[in-house]
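Supplementary Methods S3. Input chains for the assembly prediction are listed below.
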Amino acid sequence: MSNVSRGSGITIFSWEGLSAKPGNGHPAEATIRYQMAEYQPYDDKTQLARKIDRYPLSFTRNPSAPLISRPLTLSERTGPSGLIGELGAVNKLDLSRAKADGPRAVGQLISVFGRVMDEDGSPIPNAVVELWQANSGGRYIHEMDRTDTPIDPNFTGEGRLVTGPEGEYQFFSVKPGAYPVLESGWWWRPPHIHFSILGPSWMTRYVTQIFFPGEPLNETDLLLNAVPNRDVRERLIFEFDSTSMGAVNSISFKRDFVLRGRRQTPALH
Ligand SMILES: [Fe+2]
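Predicted structure tokens for the full assembly:
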């Protein structure tokens, strides 16, 4: 058995073994390579504060007691397998239309791209990236969205893609609008896109939100500002990349994701 340490977040154990004995329908012994990762606890600097003052749902989303350590199970370190086959692999996505040949949704067309990688910068291919966002007026198609902003019939605000060989992803969409958190009485969420990312095992799955640069509401958002360190908070904000004009008129934003370790992108539910 050999092990390779990857930064502070992941240690990979590799060993070779025999998959089957001759007989019982198996013509010969076959040597297969196993790989399994041991994950270190999250670095608290990359995570939200455990308690967020004035956030109505803080007590339901964060543990109030210290976490209990327990060994990881084999399936947590190696699974899930076959997920892409079940979900279907799409490495580019256009959320700006509800149907591929349908009309475009209302709003500013944006192109979002980046890479999913581990702490050393190695690409994570075949990561499953799921997305959801409000429409350009700030409205979700969801029973709990009780704002009076209209739904856009040409926009669903959800999609799923799989990263390519270099961990790359890209999608088109319309820039989401800000929306009020009605029960708070004062809080408006800045424009943001929700990401769920699942890398090589369940231990690399996290959900987060990515914000847009230069938005005034970023300064007062309870969730974004619950990440205590300003430099770490920057990992949750898109970088403006470029504008394009011609066949497609859009504004491009970039965001890379790091799945574990000191450089991890903070989780933000
Ligand atoms: Fe949201």
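The helical segments are 58-61, 74-78, 83-87, 230-233. Confidence is low (pLDDT under 50) at residues 18-27.
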